[in-house]
Amino acid sequence: MVSQRGEGETTSTPLEAADKERARAIPEAAVARLAVYLRVLSGMAESGVTAVSSEELSQAAGVNAAKLRKDLSYIGSYGTRGVGYDVEVLVSHIERILGLTRNHSVAVVGIGNLGHALANYGGFPGRGFPVTALFDVDADLVGIPVGGIPVNHIDEITAICLEREVSIGVIATPPPAAQSVCDRLVSAGVQCILNFAPVVLQVPDNVEVRKVDLAVEMQILSFHVARRADEAVHNSNGGVSVGNNGLGVDGMVIRP
Amino acid sequence: MVSQRGEGETTSTPLEAADKERARAIPEAAVARLAVYLRVLSGMAESGVTAVSSEELSQAAGVNAAKLRKDLSYIGSYGTRGVGYDVEVLVSHIERILGLTRNHSVAVVGIGNLGHALANYGGFPGRGFPVTALFDVDADLVGIPVGGIPVNHIDEITAICLEREVSIGVIATPPPAAQSVCDRLVSAGVQCILNFAPVVLQVPDNVEVRKVDLAVEMQILSFHVARRADEAVHNSNGGVSVGNNGLGVDGMVIRP
DNA sequence: TACCGCTTGTGAACGCATGCACAAAGTCGG
DNA sequence: CCGACTTTGTGCATGCGTTCACAAGCGGTA
Ligand SMILES: NC(=O)c1ccc[n+]([C@@H]2O[C@H](COP(=O)([O-])OP(=O)(O)OC[C@H]3O[C@@H](n4cnc5c(N)ncnc54)[C@H](O)[C@@H]3O)[C@@H](O)[C@H]2O)c1
Ligand SMILES: NC(=O)c1ccc[n+]([C@@H]2O[C@H](COP(=O)([O-])OP(=O)(O)OC[C@H]3O[C@@H](n4cnc5c(N)ncnc54)[C@H](O)[C@@H]3O)[C@@H](O)[C@H]2O)c1
Fold this sequence. Notes:
Two copies of one chain form a homodimer.
Chain A (H helix, E strand, L loop, with lengths): L12 H13 L2 H19 L4 E2 L1 H8 L3 H11 L3 E2 L3 E3 H11 L7 E5 L3 H8 L10 E6 L8 E2 L2 E5 L3 H7 L2 E6 L3 H13 L4 E4 L12 E4 L2 H21 L22
Parallel strand pairs in A: 4-5, 4-8, 5-7, 8-9, 9-10
Antiparallel strand pairs in A: 1-3, 2-3, 6-7
Helix pairs in contact in A: 2-3, 2-5, 3-4
One nicotinamide-adenine-dinucleotide sits at the interface of chains B and A.
Chain B binds a DNA duplex (30 and 30 nucleotides) through helix 2, helix 4 and strand 2.
């Protein structure tokens, strides 16, 4: 379907249009995996690997080879039959599809235990997510630099987020403050939120929320231990587990 | 189907057997949501709420009411038609299904930025996940208490994990160390691993891995921004987003 | 050039998850 | 006791995601 790119376009507009028609159709689960492939491929590129087959890449990414090929097919046909994929080419196309061709400025709200860790973490800027603003309600923290960036007071959030074009807001406040912080981020024009507080956030339709809930992760693990233990009791088979299969915890966006 | 519990069992064995037959059939996605329901219900219980309808609970959990009822039906029929659910009853049944009737001892490996945050976090013990051991390779850290628990050297991991019956290992080391730490945890009998390092871990079939990859989360958000921006360009509709629908980042368990 | 072996890309089948819609089953008021 | 009203539990249809299997396509080789 579609494709046949590189025919005779002068501007890049038709090409991009085709890509974005496609982008809409990429399954959510595939997007998550594409990010993983990208990381693996980046690692390979750094190690000097220039070509890779779907089999090799799928091994490294921990997925089924057929699934990997299907995932890649969502973004276009950039492989060579009989040979495999060019690592650089794949990297650049995945980056383009994931919108990583431009930087996404990140603001962290709540500079406590977790906020400190996030602000100090060096892994984000390198991947196109520079942390450009930190916020907290605690007056003692305001002005203190964490990870090289001074903490601002939460009341400045709207002005600063607009000014620095923050596109991702990270919420690392205690649960009771999370919704209010979220509302402020939204009114500052932030359309993506990564929420660490164990709260279900209410947001408008045009805002995307993803949550990371460690307690939920542990409870899922707990469930599998329990299940495995029972299986071991019922039939005395070794208790084989399939691992979590691509599902995970969700983002819970309310839509009215 | 099934149910009709509380008939005439003397021991609890037949009841539990029925539950565990069921447990095997609970969809992974439903398990993740059950953990969310549990959190919401616990909050309600603390606020003195004793009964709740599927409509109310689904609102609070950010899911469709029908889905919520179906999720609850996987664990049994504990509601009262025309009335709703008893909060306490639901809490105890979800806890039982998730295996939260017993504590799950947690060990954190890699007491850097993130490890400190995790060790200091008070939210785990209260939810049945006491952190009982910390490990790091850095000799300067060994012996220093973090969150009330002294850091041990990584070489002691096997002995201590066995002794303290650690059931969940949390990996918060730099990526290159993650696989080796994982292997040590596995050989210490740990069957559940929560991995923060951006690496695909290779584990035996009987070990369950879940990963939390913040860069991947951000890239998924980035994808949606890009998609939304394009939609806005193509047709000038407001750019409505569906939010992430219960999917997320996965755990990538290799099976040979 | 023609053939061979290898790997991609994808049509099609399957299975799981979601959401609808309604019967069953309960409460409450009279 | 009965009938009206409420809410659960679930059969069923629909849609999404995964997996299989294989034709199409490419590089290498004679
Ligand atoms: N630390 C962890 O490992 C961990 C693990 C899982 C979940 N979480 C969750 O992450 C969140 C943060 O955890 P933490 O351990 O860093 O908590 P923390 O108490 O150490 O830090 C919270 C910070 O948020 C600030 N804050 C409070 N109200 C605010 C507001 N309205 N606006 C801006 N800042 C505000 C506080 O001043 C504090 O600095 C919590 O919701 C917690 O449940 C943390
Ligand atoms: N800090 C964050 O916010 C953040 C965000 C996303 C991902 N991560 C990931 O989490 C992991 C930890 O991040 P961090 O910022 O805490 O790193 P960090 O460098 O601050 O801490 C790593 C710790 O692990 C210890 N360590 C190294 N090798 C070890 C080994 N073999 N055994 C035991 N301990 C060992 C180090 O001594 C150090 O204390 C990394 O893989 C990072 O990519 C962190």
